Amino acid sequence: MNKKDLKLIFELDSNSRASYSKIGKKIRMSEQLISYKIKSFQKKGVIQGVCPLIDYSRFSLLAFLVFFKVRFKSEQSYTKLLEELKGHENVLSIMESDGKYDLLVIFASKNPSSFNKKLKILVSDYPQLKDWMILTSVVDHHYLRNYLLGKDGESDVILGGDRDEVPVDDLDFYILHALIMGKRTILEIAEYARSSPKTILIHLKWLQEQHVLKGYRLLLNTRRMEISSNAILIKYRHITAEQEDEFRHFCKRDPNIIQFTKTFGEWDGVLYIETKNRVEFRRVSLQLRERFDDIIEDIDNFRIFAIPKKQFLPSEILLEPS
């Protein structure tokens, strides 16, 4: 990809619902060329979809990260497992990885008891899920892909945490479902939700004001961009509030770190990192270990080579117009 392509990907990933005219003015590209390039990216599998950043905590949901080791029997059985996970009513995202674990699956549930019941049913139905580790997500920090432009980061979109539930109506659910399905324009959303564009605009504005909707990102196939995607698990030794703020600020500023999830369990955090090569990844990893040697007790990493699914609300609570 050339610099213009990377700038376009960055702008789309910063706000996938931005108008082509607005993006075009920023990167000096015609609307026609933007439309052509987006279709080309989709055809090549670079852009797999869109990911509206919906704060699941506003629905009184908790997120659980489950790292699975899979007993591989055949390609057919593995594909069947993936399809089951993709269609599971509580699954938010799936990442295929290598190393100690083969899958990282993120579930959303109202409480630990409900999640535990669903997990037990799943592993009973699919015995090839032989080992697993569970982390509870405390809060997610999402950062822009600043490495595409070679600049440091500043943006920090926070999902999860201790938040009050927001009372949403059926139309709000229809709108959120439409966004998850990739409906981009107000007219597309209105047609799906069977409402007027004016009403959709009012509800969208309200969802944003209530901090339910916090942005619009892309689901990218980074391998098609020749970009390496990795996750780093962090375990703290002893950490003060000031040191934790410093660590979080480092994550936000580093252009290659695209997400930091603070967790509860065997590990204290998960960093998601994208780099143009393994040398850059090693740089980030070494910087972390050197700069925070006094607070990091243990560190582990694995590569992410595919993301079959990613969204921020489970199908369990989504509604479709009847």
Explain what you see.
- Helices cover 37% and strands 30% of the residues.
- It has 322 residues and is of the alpha+beta class.
- Among the domains are: 44 residues, Winged helix-like DNA-binding domain superfamily/Winged helix DNA-binding domain (Arc Repressor Mutant, subunit A, Orthogonal Bundle); 179 residues, Alpha-Beta Plaits, CATH 3.30.70.
- The longest helix is centred in the middle third of the chain and has 14 residues.
- The model has no long low-confidence stretch (mean pLDDT 93).
List keywords for this structure.
eight-stranded antiparallel barrel, 10 helices, 11 strands, Alpha-Beta Plaits, Arc Repressor Mutant, subunit A, two-stranded antiparallel ribbon, 322 residues, alpha+beta, globular
Q: Briefly, what CATH class of the domain at 57-145 and 221-310?
A: Alpha Beta
Describe the global form: globular
In this structure, how is the largest beta sheet organized?
8 strands, antiparallel, barrel
Q: Spans of 5+ residues with little confidence (pLDDT < 50)? A: none
Mean pLDDT: 93
Give the fraction of residues assigned to helices: 25-40%
User: What is the tally of helical segments?
Assistant: 10
